[in-house]
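Quarterly update from the structural biology core.
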Amino acid sequence: MTDDTRLSEIELQKYFQSAAFTQSAAKLPQCPIDHGHEVAFAGRSNAGKSSAINRITGQKKLARISKTPGRTQLINFFGLRDEQRLVDLPGYGYAKVALAQKLEWQKHLEHYLEKRASLTGLVLVMDVRRPLQPFDTVMLDWVKQYQIQCHILITKADKLKRGPAMQALFQVEKSVEDQPHISAQLFSATNGTGLGQAQDKLYDWLHQPEVTVD
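Predicted structure, tokenized:
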């Protein structure tokens, strides 16, 4: 957004509060029609992905929060306005399921990242106390491979003092400094650290001009 078009804090809150669950999908063909713009959230199990979605939208129960890591196995879509959507991707990591099932999830996730034309950006959620885990680097490799805009939310920033939290942010930024399409910030669903910055980024992505093909 330019300064002339930037929404106020209240306008941003109202926009994201309009998010409502529309449908779930187990694989790409079951996803909504591939029009408009959508931003997807991905993250290692228990990194705080659902809590981040709920804080950004100002809704406590929009995204399902589970105490069982990896329980979310479906791609969940939340509609906003004018074919704009937020997407909650399956948590990856320590899900207590068979290896074959994990590989199946990975296949469908990669299909989504590669084929979904309306995907305008990916929010990658990492725990500030454990950033850049192996599963995070896999996601970043996919982001680089498919040249997807990516914004890293380093969540649970309230769990560390400012110094260590800033060190974690610096570590993440250093790891992607050669990728101009990847950015990062500190975030806390508990106290709202970084909320406005995250909402601004998502709003920009969701309102990019449509790409036309001659």
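The chain has one domain: 9-206.
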